[in-house]
Q: What sequence folds into this?
């Protein structure tokens, strides 16, 4: 009998209890052991059939010697960090879906787990149920990974899908996502790209073997995307996606989260609604892509229970055998990062912009929507330029043309 | 120092030696050990810098007590089976890409490995470098898997892509694939679907926890697909893909490899050239897809080396902790399997076929290519029917219409 303590009975915690119960037979067949949830920590009361398992006292779980595995599904840093440290120090394995905590203290907690000969596993922290952490660590371990990129946030992908497919504005699409339970009441972390930033920090730390500090990742959200952007995307046969990316360079890593106009023929363009997709480029493997539901109760809980099963199979070992890195990777300033750009401009002098655009942006194209909704603006589709070159060129253009306003600027692939 | 013996210096064996050398630093950082190839078995001589490692005597590897890990990259059943048994019995871990052997003797060899407290790992046997075996076993272990399907053979996918994109006939496309090294001189195992059949047998055995006997899987190849089929596919906004599938039912499993007309909007349609994609449906996770290069020297060797790294991290344990199943799963006769069908017919009585088609096939549509190349034939796109119902309906149609010839029949999704 393996006893489990669940901390937090929200979406992921309750999903974990549900799967452990529902797929009991499959799980005990796979592990050769019976897994039992002994206690559940939550400050709220729940009207569920296993009411007697609840406690409001964390120490009753942390100090229970029967419990060998703790599911930390509280989320956030405080008190999750404190509980995790206590659990690892007292020799309990910890499985979590907490991306904030892993992004901020992952290396430290991995090292603490190793010192105490237990596991700290967090497959559920990125991509919901999509297997990505373990494949990166194990299956692709023979590769030097050069780049990871993808759609890591289901909420924003849902909003962008609805803006494209149903012609909704950003606010309408966000409201719809909230009603459907895909976006939280306070959607900031999702729509500003912070959630995707935490996830790419976690993935790149594993892939590159050094910790990539989340706080240094350049992050742009989708809250400034409007329906005119969608019209431009359609005209260019592209789709707007919030892409998280970490690309290894000699001196460090380019790490960023930004909206990107991706080609409709690329696999990323087909990833719609709340689905996520993660592409990994390795020197031996080439491109590998992982696709699935990046969030949701059962998919995420499925990853938590997958980790639990792994722990049970290696109860007396650190199954993943990784340690956190003590050294951090240099996150490079993005002004040296190159891409094409679509720059929307308005002003009274659009004819003059038209005239000078190609002088200032070599090999650029003027995109005119020819649509009543986009009157009084044009867009320049540039050649591949660094972020720094774009800034300089725009300054030059302003000098030549006079008053123009930059309505938006998106990277194009 | 961990000593490795490599058996077979073909594509996968030589790729393994190459990656172990090239990514030496990354690998020793990840494992904390130095990995050294001590001996290589091959009957041929190779003009390589590590010539001194070669031996023509298998026992010099199998009886070398320094060697703790053997890479079996010989392929086929004989002598790979014999060597693998000997290696496992003498306490050596075995890592392989040999799908024939795993499909035929996988359960037995897994049990033998477990008895001897070593690992038998075969991530490279399915999907080249795409992580699929380990994710199925570990990350998705909390799920009841209901279905696995996908494009598991790169050779046939390349041929179908070239037929669609370049308008080549089957023979031309096959020849091109052979010239590019994507198809073997004897392409039978690929084009007849046997290779994909072995792979779906391996995957479904793992996912369903009982061995699915390869020999009982219904297999149709792509060698009868012609350019008219491609025209129909285009007209229906679909693409022809060789789909391997295992679908769990109450009484057993439907397991088959057949060409399928997949919707151009489905993710499978975008999988082109030598790429593979594998979709797994689980009760908690929903749909997850894995995509990447399904074959090739370095991708496949990358999976072999990933397994080696896993072994090194758990030298004194059976890392995956799975046992082979002693019981086999019932493979159901496919005549109860349902799908839509596109049935191509020719004859002198096409007008009459037109008239009776809807009487015989309820809710069917006549597809007329209206193309000189497809003169004298039409096709019926049926509603969802079992294989048995299709056969009966065709018999009835023949009775009503007289002499008609069935030119082809493909499943449609």
A:
């Amino acid at each position: 009998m393996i006893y489990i303590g669940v901390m937090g009975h929200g979406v992921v915690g309750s999903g974990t209890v549900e799967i452990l119960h529902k797929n009991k037979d499959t799980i005990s067949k796979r592990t050769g052991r019976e897994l039992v949830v002994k206690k559940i920590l939550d400050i709220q009361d729940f009207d569920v059939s296993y009411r007697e398992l609840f406690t409001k006292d964390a120490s009753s779980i942390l100090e229970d010697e029967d419990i060998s595995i703790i599911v930390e599904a509280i989320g956030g840093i405080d008190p999750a960090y404190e509980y995790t440290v206590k659990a690892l120090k007292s020799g309990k394995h910890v499985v979590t879906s907490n991306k904030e905590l892993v992004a901020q203290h992952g290396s430290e907690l991995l090292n603490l787990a190793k010192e105490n000969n237990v596991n700290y596993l967090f497959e559920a922290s990125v991509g919901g149920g999509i297997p990505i952490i373990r494949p990166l660590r194990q299956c692709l371990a023979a590769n030097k990974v050069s780049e990871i990129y993808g759609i890591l946030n289901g909420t924003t992908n849902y909003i962008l899908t609805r803006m494209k497919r149903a012609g909704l504005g950003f606010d309408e699409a966000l409201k719809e996502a909230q009603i459907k339970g895909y976006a939280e009441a306070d959607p900031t972390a999702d729509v500003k790209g912070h959630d995707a930033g935490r996830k790419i920090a976690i993935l790149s730390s594993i892939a590159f073997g050094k910790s990539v500090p989340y706080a240094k990742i350049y992050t742009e959200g989708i809250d400034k995307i409007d329906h005119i952007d969608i019209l431009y995307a359609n005209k260019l046969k592209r789709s707007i996606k919030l892409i998280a990316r970490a690309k290894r360079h000699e001196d460090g890593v380019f790490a960023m989260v930004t909206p990107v106009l991706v080609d409709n023929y690329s696999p990323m363009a087909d990833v719609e609604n709340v689905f996520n997709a993660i592409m990994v480029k390795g020197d031996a493997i080439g491109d590998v892509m992982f696709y699935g539901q990046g969030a949701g109760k059962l998919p995420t809980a499925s990853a938590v229970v997958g980790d639990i099963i792994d722990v049970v199979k290696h109860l007396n070992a650190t199954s993943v055998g990784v340690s956190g890195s003590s050294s951090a990777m240099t996150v490079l300033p993005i002004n040296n990062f190159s891409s094409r750009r679509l720059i929307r401009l308005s002003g009274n002098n659009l004819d003059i912009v038209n005239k000078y655009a190609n002088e200032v942006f070599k090999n650029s194209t003027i995109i005119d929507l020819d649509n009543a909704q986009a009157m009084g603006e044009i867009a320049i589709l540039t050649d591949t330029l660094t972020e720094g070159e774009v800034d300089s060129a725009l300054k030059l253009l302003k000098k030549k043309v006079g008053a123009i306003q930059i309505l938006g600027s998106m990277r194009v692939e």
Q: What stands out?
A: The longest helix of chain A spans residues 99-115. Residues 133-294 of chain A form a domain with the Dihydrodipicolinate Reductase; domain 2 fold (CATH 3.30.360.10).
